[in-house]
Automatic annotation (TrEMBL):
<keyword id="KW-0812">Transmembrane</keyword>
<dbReference type="Pfam" id="PF01740">
    <property type="entry name" value="STAS"/>
</dbReference>
<dbReference type="InterPro" id="IPR011547">
    <property type="entry name" value="SLC26A/SulP_dom"/>
</dbReference>
<feature type="transmembrane region" description="Helical">
    <location>
        <begin position="198"/>
        <end position="218"/>
    </location>
</feature>
<feature type="transmembrane region" description="Helical">
    <location>
        <begin position="254"/>
        <end position="271"/>
    </location>
</feature>
<protein>
    <submittedName>
        <fullName>Chloride anion exchanger</fullName>
    </submittedName>
</protein>
<feature type="transmembrane region" description="Helical">
    <location>
        <begin position="77"/>
        <end position="98"/>
    </location>
</feature>
<dbReference type="GO" id="GO:0008271">
    <property type="term" value="F:secondary active sulfate transmembrane transporter activity"/>
</dbReference>
<feature type="transmembrane region" description="Helical">
    <location>
        <begin position="338"/>
        <end position="358"/>
    </location>
</feature>
<dbReference type="InterPro" id="IPR018045">
    <property type="entry name" value="S04_transporter_CS"/>
</dbReference>
<feature type="domain" description="STAS">
    <location>
        <begin position="520"/>
        <end position="715"/>
    </location>
</feature>
<feature type="transmembrane region" description="Helical">
    <location>
        <begin position="283"/>
        <end position="302"/>
    </location>
</feature>
<feature type="transmembrane region" description="Helical">
    <location>
        <begin position="104"/>
        <end position="120"/>
    </location>
</feature>
<dbReference type="GO" id="GO:0016020">
    <property type="term" value="C:membrane"/>
</dbReference>
<feature type="transmembrane region" description="Helical">
    <location>
        <begin position="407"/>
        <end position="427"/>
    </location>
</feature>
<dbReference type="InterPro" id="IPR036513">
    <property type="entry name" value="STAS_dom_sf"/>
</dbReference>
<feature type="transmembrane region" description="Helical">
    <location>
        <begin position="172"/>
        <end position="191"/>
    </location>
</feature>
Amino acid sequence: MIEPIGNQYIVARPVYSANAFGEEHKKKQRHHKTFLDHLKECCSCSTQKAKKIALSLFPIASWLPAYQIKEWLLSDIVSGISTGLVAVLQGLAFALLVTVPPSYGLYAAFFPILVYFFLGTSKHISVGPFPVLSMMVGAIVVKVTPSVSTAALEISNSSMSNYSSTDEYKVMVAATVTVLSGIIQLLMGVLRFGFVVIYLSESLISGFTTAAAVHVLVSQLKFMLQLSVPAHTDPFSIFKVLNSVFTQIEKTNIADLLTSLIILLIVFVVKEINQRYKAKLPVPIPIELIMTVIATGVSYGFDFENRFKVAVVGEMNRGFQPPIAPDMQIFQETLGDSFGIAIVGFMVAFSVASVYSLKYDYPIDGNQELIALGLSNIFTGSFKGFAASTALSRSGVQESTGGKTQIAGILSAIIVLIVILALGFLLEPLQKSVLAALALGNLKGMLMQFTEIRRLWRKDKYDCLIWIMTFIFAIVLGLGLGLAASVAFQLLTIVFRTQFPKCSTLANVGRSNIYKNKKDYSDMHEPEGVKIFRCPAPIYFANIQFFKQKLIDAVGFNPLQILRKRNKALKKIRKLQKKGLLQVTPKGFIYTNDGFKDSDDEMDNNEIEELDQPINTTDLPFQIDWNTDFPLNISVPKISLHSLILDFSAVSFLDISSMRGLKTILQEFIRINVDVYVVGSDDDFIEKLAQCEFFDDEVKDSIFFLTIHDAVLHIWMKKDYNVSKFNPSQEKEMKFDFTINTNGGLRNRECQVPDETKF
């Protein structure tokens, strides 16, 4: 019964152990589905289920019939045109990261949108090239290409009017890797592996993208300075690239350097204006488009290519390339790297899609996103494009310019299509250094994530450590190995958190039924002779010894040592009692002969095992109070603890190894007359212990209580009332019912109130 009184309440109920609660409140019989049941349900078919599957595979069938033409079409048109122009420039710029001719970046900006329009679940992300993904594909291209090249590979910055066999092979490698990563994503989606993204924390994603931005920055230096830099893909490659750049710094093309710096400065300033005044601007200023038009016109008008020997985009392929079949040999060489690309691509796209789904309140499906991205990449790779995900800046443009649905996405694809078929030649005079500067202009947000370190350090030092180590791994080992090492380190931090949990000793706050860490509050009351110990993590093979040590520290003694000393003392008492040298009085033991000496020689293993057994005094004509004074030659530590409460409300599971260790710990306390109680455990937890034969004559299932306060009240009744207030027959008939007074204290509704000085 609960009686509210203002902002306080009175609770009247019995003191419940887990067994008593189970007897009074019977559990429902529930049928738990077996694997066969799930298989039958999965394989069953009905009209409704078929319709649901069809709508989930083709989300366009759900949102397109509900499209509001009058309200949304104009916004989608404006958004589509703006996003399409950005997609064209980013496609050209990110192609440099893949080390393929820029025109192939347009294919990567066009084909993914077509597939995602029909299969994607997000209404706002813009699918296409992403700098981090392009960098990862480029690293694979550089790694694989030298193995078939007849000469050492060097990145050429000259105009690519005639593609060499090396260029064609690089396109083949990029396309094959894209198809393979798409197949991996498709298989993961079909097998419902969308949950894999949960293993990539926000801190890991932030640290990884920041490191990738640094890689992109370094990779673009050769275009900004127009230097011939050998490719490196092994660990420490970023430092080797920097070394190559600085050893050739005197060969810098000043025209390219000045152009890129001017473009970069203007882009940063205008992007900052767009960010600060986004509420007042109807649409963001399309600075990338403006600078591209100006830079192309200036380069063409003043003939920069011939006068200053700058590197330009060169001939742009008009129209589409015929589809190609992936190279199976490249499949074998790039399987591991392609898996990393598949995971990172999905991770980025799903993260951005989740932000917009929460903002606009519509659902997204991780498994369907994998299918959509997988088929997008397979389709794109077949037409010589490279891996796609979503660029944060491009999606931001699509959303901020009023995009409502993927109609804006398909319109942006039309803009890219127009450039591919008709307007591509206008970009031929454009300097590559301008594209490099535009690519770096999109990295500002990623590089600014360095500020995350301070925020994470204040919130959670483990998250901060994950960010730092992810950044270091990705910088030093490269993006592929760095991601794998970062995930492994992140999982290792989870082990550390559970292996070394912050255990605490609890006490009563303000004489109420609330128990908190006794170090955190001033008005704390610890029940006399009772220790309440809380473990806030699962207990398993790796932390059971840590748990035991923390428990020993909390109670102030090692129960096994106390047990051994008591058994050893008991052996001496038996010898003295048999010789008639020991008398028992109401005040304690009296030793009648000071000449008796007992051997303290080192014991063998069998004798030690005997000392670890339960204390048995049935053969003695008297009972032993282990806290009394013993003769001088018998030393037994005194302990005031009579009850130990273990708060397992945060312990979600035990493994077999930890069960054995926990049972040993409980037995050691029980054998020295310390009653042990476990509170807050789930029913499934107790059932698992029973199935593993955890309980016996010493460790019984009656030690489990619902709450800490139930256990404390049970101890009061057992130690106070059972001894001094009632005889055994009265105790069985009496039902104790404690309530909370309105002043927060405790009172007994039917019996004498316990002495609160013991609390």
